[in-house]
Amino acid sequence: MGKQKVAGTIMLNGEDGSKYFLVEKKASSFTFFQTETKNGLTSLACILEEIKQNVPVDTKLLDLVDLTSVTYEGIKVPLFVFELDEEKAKKIELDSMFSWEPPETLRNVLKSLEVSGVPIFSQNQE
Q1: Separation of alpha carbons 77 and 124, rounded Å
Q2: Left (φ > 0), alpha (ψ -120 to 50) or beta: where does 91 sit?
Q3: 3-state secondary structure of 75
Q4: Which of 55, 74, 119, 123 has the fewest Cβ atoms within 10 angstroms?
């Protein structure tokens, strides 16, 4: 069996109630963290390892809040959503390839994918 892709993001809970999502910048768009599964590791372990390799965050501080599936280029991919409070994220210095983006950006990323089981995130606006 071939390696399966897995994706993920971190939802930042702002002290003022706002939400931001950690995404990767690709040319003129954004995408989720993505990697392939590795032998002997679960999908969850693989995406946490990918996040650790790219973002200086202690993954023990992350809480898994949602798991859904998206179809990317015709392939069903598990999408893990973790959350982190802003207070815990203040010391994180992101590489220029990554950024905290508002929910509108996440919705645009999701529009480009076929989603089965849309994650539900509380919103204070709209």
Answers
A1: 29
A2: alpha
A3: strand
A4: 74
pLDDT tens per residue, range 47-102? 999 999 999 888 899 999 999 888 887 888 999 999 999 988 887 888 889 999 99
- The two three-digit tokens of residue 73, written as one number: 């280029």
Q: Residue 25 has which token pair?
A: 């910048």
pLDDT at residue 115, rounded to an integer: 63
Q: Buried b / exposed e across 71-96, counting CB within 10 Å, b at 16+?
A: ebeeeebbbbbbbbeeeebeebeeee
Q: Which structural domains are found in the chain, ordered by start?
A: 5-116 (3.90.79.10)
